[in-house]
Every structure is written in C-alpha cells, then in structure tokens.
Amino acid sequence: MRTRHDRRKRIYATIITDEGFRNITVWIKRYVCKGKGRGKGKGKGKGKGCGKVYCSRSPFYPGCLYASPVVDTCLYLAAHNPFCRVEAILQSWGLQIDRDTIRSYVRRFGRRARNIAGVRIDNTSVAVNLVRLLFDATDVEELKARLPGEVFQDVGDETYPAIKGAKKRLREENLERALRGEKERPYPDSHTLACVYETLHKFFVSILVTPTAFNTMLADALERPAHGCVGSVRDGSKCYRGEHIDCVNHKPRRLIARDPVYRRLKKEAQSRAQIEEYCRLFYGRVREKEAERAAQMYPELVDGDGRFIGALSTNSMEGGNWRIKFGLKVPYLDPVSEEARTLLVALLDSMKTFDAGRPCESFAHLHGCFEYSSVMADKDNDRGPDTFPSRGGESDSSSDHTGEFGLWLNSAVLRAKQGREKALKALAATS
C-alpha cells in the first residue's frame, strides 16, 4: 500500500571536535501512500490513493532539528538547570546545542503536554493533568480502579514566584514611596503557581501556571484530576470549595490572631517563653480537634488503633513548592517557559529513583508509564491562536492556556463591578 519516494538527510547531533563543529547525519526514507483514499484531481473519490508523503520510523520528534535522544537529554537537564546552563553542560560533553534551541524544545514540551493532558474550562486549557502524563489515567479514581486497595490523599497549595525584574522594581518603588511617606508594597509582581500533590504516594497530580490571579474556577479545575482522593488538605483559602481538612498550621495561625488571651500575653508577658508555651498548647489543641474530625470524616485514613494516619497539614505541598522553585533557580518574564520547566521539575520529582542519599523507587516510577517521547511525539501547532498577555513588549508565538480565560475573567469582574455600582446608585436614590 506504499511505494518508496526518496531519502532525506537529517542531523542526528552536532559534536565538538578539535577541528570545530561536525554534524552527524543520517538518511531517512520517505514513502508515498498508495492505499485507498480520496485521491487527487480527476481520480478523486475513485480509490487511487491519498498520495501523502511520510517518513519511515526514525529517532526524530516532529518539528525538532536533532534526534530524540539529544532532545530527551535537553529536557532532562532543563528540569533542574536554566537554558544557558544546559548549553554549558552539553558543551562540556562535546555536544553543541544553543540556548535558544533548548528553550524551544522545552516550550514545545509544555505546549504538547497541554494538548495531551490539559484541564479545560470552556474549551480553554487552564492546568495540566499530571495523572494523565504519569499513569495514562483520567484522574485518581481511574488509577484506584487499576490498583485495588490503594488509598490516595491529596494536598493543594499555591505559591507566587516573582516575575523577572519585579524585585528590583519593587525596591525602587518602595524607596520612592518611603520618600513620599506612603505605605510600602509588601510583595513584587508575580505569577501564580498552584499544585495538587498526592502525599501518601508522593507524586504531583496537577499543575497550573498563569499570570491571572488565583480564583475559585481555577481551583476547581486544578482539583479535577484529584477526583478519587480522600482527606484533601487545604490552607484555608476561600478559593477551595467542598469538604476538606483545614491545615493544622494555617488554621491555628488564623485563630490565634483573634484570641484575646494571646493578645493580652503579647502586651503583658514578662518573657518570650510564656508566649511560646501558650502558642504550643493552642496549636496542639487545634491539631487534636482537627485529627478527631478527620478520623470521623475519612475512616480510610484511620489505622487499627483508631489513629488518623493521613496528612493534616500542607507541609508536603510546601516542600513540593520549594523543590519546584529550587529547580527553576531563575525568575521568568514569560509564563510559558516557566510552566514548561515547572512540568519537567514536577515529573522528574515524581519519577525519582533516588532520594535522601539512598535508592528509593517512587510510586510513579513503579506504576507509571511516562516517557518524554509520549509527549514530544505529539504533533502540535507551533503558532496557536492564543497567546499569553505580553509583558515588557515581548512578542510570543506560543499557544496560551489561560489567555482567553483571563480576558473573560477580567470582563466578568468589570460587569460585576458596574452592576454593584448601579445597585448602590439605585439604593441611594430611593433613600
């Protein structure tokens, strides 16, 4: 059903020699389809074959210059190194790949991951389902059906990595505010990085990176892949809805701020030790009450002695956030690059085989099926219709999974504000 068409030369890799750069090339065969199809010209519809030219199986991803082992190496190194550092490491190994090419491969990985495993709101992808990438499952509920007897518990939290250059701008702005006698701004401009983490088996469930402020709709989308987990732990943010455990670090911190005894101690205590002892007892009482409530709500996480053995705090997710930020190492102006590198960090963290100085095969590595090729082999559209809002006048041709949603959200907030102002004017007129 095919005939040989021609051969095409492809660059497998560029190596560094004493004489300079040298391209290692391979020949790829191409074929013409002769199977039944729509055909062309006068023979259209009469089964003369579609005439499509395609390549034979070869170690190359669609749209990538170098061979797939070279691209996989770039993605692996980019999980914990900035693009320029990856270029330097590869040069020390004798491979020449420039920083912009590495950046292109990483962004292509992020874009194709959204195509395969995007969590959508109104046909707009707003988050990435890592359960789909790691286990080829829709959500945790489907994963539980494959592994009877396993219990999963999720922890969700968000952090705000600063935009490149935002800290410097904040210092300059606060200096001017101080000279004018105004209150200083506490935080620099930042992106929203939100994650859901499975704390018993230690893998990331979903990830969201966006320039849009975190809200209830994004939180609902982020939690969708975690369907099937029990005992969800949240930090008390109003964005999260439904039954969940209040983090025993965040909850007492909010309660003790309104506690009259604590307020009086802060003014009248003769030593810091008195305040610390009261805080220790206060936090302990809140933890005991939350553990009792969680044991009644989630019997799957109770051992034979009646003790709650699940997570009661977002500490595991806080650690995951710090591991991601440590892996990123540098701030980004562009959320597309930041999201792609965040995905690589989270996937490598979930698939680890070594931890705390000793061999440790993770649950995702044991039961998962993730490979870089499962994402990079997907054919994507390099110039999607949606783009992130440009910052600093930069032009970006990459597809955006939150651009349309951000515009819709801003218009919805504006409509609500106008409606509220109209209602207040009507109320003032009647009074």
* Strand order in space, largest sheet: 4-5-8-7-6
Structural class comes to alpha+beta
Q: Which CATH class of the domain at 110-247 and 313-408 applies here?
A: Alpha Beta
From the 3D structure, determine the CATH topology of the domain at 110-247 and 313-408: Nucleotidyltransferase, domain 5
**Strand residue percentage:** 15-25%
Oligomer: single chain
Number of strands: 12
Distance between the termini: 83 Å
Overall helicity: 40-55%
The SSE string, one letter per element, is: EEEHHHEEHHEHEEHEEHHHHHEEHHH
Q: What is the alpha-carbon Rg in Å? A: 27 Å
Major sheet characteristics: 5 strands, antiparallel
- CATH homologous superfamily heading of the domain at 110-247 and 313-408: Ribonuclease H-like superfamily/Ribonuclease H
Low-confidence stretches: 39-47, 382-403
Q: What would CATH call the architecture of the domain at 110-247 and 313-408?
A: 2-Layer Sandwich
Shape: globular
What does this entry look like structurally?
It is a single chain. With 431 residues, this protein is α+β, with helices and mostly antiparallel strands. The protein contains 15 helices and twelve strands. The chain has helices at residues 68-78, 83-92, 99-117, 130-135, 140-146, 166-180, 216-223, 250-256, 260-268, 272-297, 315-328, 335-350, 363-367, 372-376, 403-430; strands at 2-17, 20-33, 53-55, 118-121, 124-129, 154-159, 192-198, 203-210, 233-234, 245-246, 354-355, 358-359. A five-stranded antiparallel sheet has the order 4-5-8-7-6, sandwiched between helices. The protein has a three-stranded antiparallel sheet with strand order 1-2-3, with no helix packed on it. Strand 11 (354-355) and strand 12 form a beta hairpin. Helix 2 (83-92) crosses helix 3 and helix 3 packs across helix 12 (335-350). The protein starts with a strand and ends with a helix.
